[in-house]
Specification:
Layout: H1 2-23, E1 46-47, E2 53-55, E3 58-59, E4 71-76, E5 89-92, E6 98-101, E7 105-108, H2 114-128, E8 135-141, E9 145-153, E10 159-164, H3 171-177, E11 190-194, E12 204-208, H4 210-215, E13 230-233
Parallel strand pairs: 9-13
Antiparallel strand pairs: 1-2, 2-3, 4-5, 4-8, 6-7, 9-10, 11-12, 11-13
Length: 240
Amino acid sequence: MKTMRSYYFTLLIAFAALVAGAQSSGPSIYGPSSGPVVPVPAVGSIGSPSGSAMLGGYMQDATYKLRAGDVVSFQIREDLVWNPSDSPKNLVVSDSGELDVPYIGRVLVVDKTCPQLADELKSALEKDYYNKATVVLSLNLANRVAGRVYIWGQVRTQGPQDMQLNENLTAGQAILRAGGFADFANKSRVKVVRGSAGSHADKKTFDLDMVQILEKGKTEEDIVLQPGDFIIVPSRLVNF
């Protein structure tokens, strides 16, 4: 009987070790450079064969720079002392490129990596709120939208269009996506206006003949759009 009890006890210990190992094999998330890297499952991540986390098609590593629309997980490890059940908070990068971080408020985060941002938040928290703050920060979801283009004038559907990352969207394709030309469109005088919101000298204008591009198949005369481009489809002077 004693031998059987020892056998079952050994099996129980082995099973507990196996479960603990499975629970600790999740993808790593980022903390400050001076703090530990804590292995916990990242929300919405899919494990890859190499053990890294793939998030919406992006490798979760130290090189990814945050963009508007990204979702990150934020936690201060020291808070678990007072509330062991405290879970990480999901924060969304706003269109202005900011995160609304607990205790600190709005912080500009665009073009920063998770380790860089974690170090900055750690310094800010330890300056005013904590003697020691271990910030755990991870990328939960990467925004696939690279930006928007805007189409105006004689098309079926005017307004903004999302551009996906790595998408080579052309002016002709954007017009087709807008439902095509309206009845009184001047197809041969389409304009694409590109430039910053600064001086007019920074702007470029491209004149496109969509009769040649879309109707006669000369797609080499089309142009690849960039986020922020305006496509203007004017009306014909004489409509009949």
